[in-house]
Amino acid sequence: EVVEATQVYKISCSAELTVQGSVNQLMREPQKPKLTTEVKKQQTSVGGTAMLELKVEGFPKPEVKWTHDGKEIEAGGRFKFLHDEEESMSLVIKNVQSEDAGDYKIQAVNDLGEDTDVVHLTVKAPPKFKTKMTDVSCMASAEIKLRVEVEGCPQPDVTWYKDGKVIQKNSERVKTYNEVTGTYELVIDKATLDDTGSYSVVATNELSQTSEFCKVEVHSPPEFVKTMTKHLEVSENDTVTFQVKARGDPAPTVKWFKDGKELKHDGGHIQISEDGETKTLVVHKINRKDTGKYSCEISNIYGSNKDEGEM
């Protein structure tokens, strides 16, 4: 079947497309990178979260690189990058550790140039001993040196103790040394038996305190602290006492002699006793046979010593 065309029609169609964003981008002036950080010093505690924020301007859009201690930071694990707006950027550090403290350098680069900025992160941490004290054993007159390394933020205050009492700093024989690196030393010159004891060091900052302990033993050959009377004149039936004070480490053994022959405690005529450093010989009811030279000999594994008197 054929249909005859009686009229001719003209049909037209038009469309308009506007991409505003693209137009704006094409009209934008090129700009070298510019970094802006409102807070250049951030602070957090160990185990917390840190957010380092900055504004990044520039066209074409700059490439941004973060570095810490010379090492580039990449997203992953505890580190994440956030882009809140077109020109806003943040580095988020979760479960912050002491080693995360320091300067973070930001570098932004595009075809027109570059810009850099630095944000400092302070990580507060309780005191912690990196090295511990060890027990010390030495001879008298030697130097005693106790040393520890302490870390913490703020920098801890360090105090030394002996047998629970604060050690006075920088006396004639005892000195303390502190280094910026966190190394602390207690130095005792020309050790004596009195330096034997329990030593402790306490590190304190605003977060908490911690302590370390050690024992110091000073050894020496025996020595007389007090000697006996050198000459005694007595009457028959008198009681005579010879007494000395002796010390050493280990504690010395004591022997008494008359004219080279060792005396033994008999509970009657001859009595020998010890009370700490005090060593005593008592002779009761003196007679002419007791006239002679008396001596006291002290000894330990490091040597011996002798003191004499005459009656």
**Beta strand count:** 24
State Rg: 43 Å
The fourth-level CATH homologous superfamily of the largest domain is Immunoglobulins
Helix fraction?
Answer: under 10%
The CATH topology of the largest domain turns out to be Immunoglobulin-like
CATH class of the largest domain: Mainly Beta
Please tally the helical runs, counting DSSP H or I stretches of 4 or more residues: 1
Structural class: mainly beta
Mean of residue pLDDT values = 90
Q: In percent terms, what proportion of residues is strand? A: over 45%
Q: Stretches where pLDDT falls below 50 for ≥5 residues? A: 17-23
Cα separation of the termini: 166 Å
Just name the CATH architecture of the largest domain. Sandwich
Assembly state here?
Answer: single chain
Q: Can you offer a commentary on this structure?
A:
The protein is mostly beta strands and about 300 residues long. The protein folds into three domains: about 30-125, Immunoglobulin-like; about 130-220, Immunoglobulins (Immunoglobulin-like), CATH 2.60.40.10; about 225-310, Immunoglobulins (Immunoglobulin-like), CATH 2.60.40. The protein has one helix at about 20-25, and strands spanning about 30-35, 40-45, 50-60, 65-70, 70, 80, 90-95, 100-110, 115-130, 135-140, 145-155, 155-160, 165, 175-180, 185-190, 195-205, 210-225, 240-250, 255-260, 260, 270-275, 280-285, 295-300, 305-310. A hairpin with a 2-residue loop joins β4 and β5. It is rod-shaped, with a radius of gyration of 43 Å. Mean pLDDT is about 90; it is low at about 15-25. It comes from Homalodisca liturata.
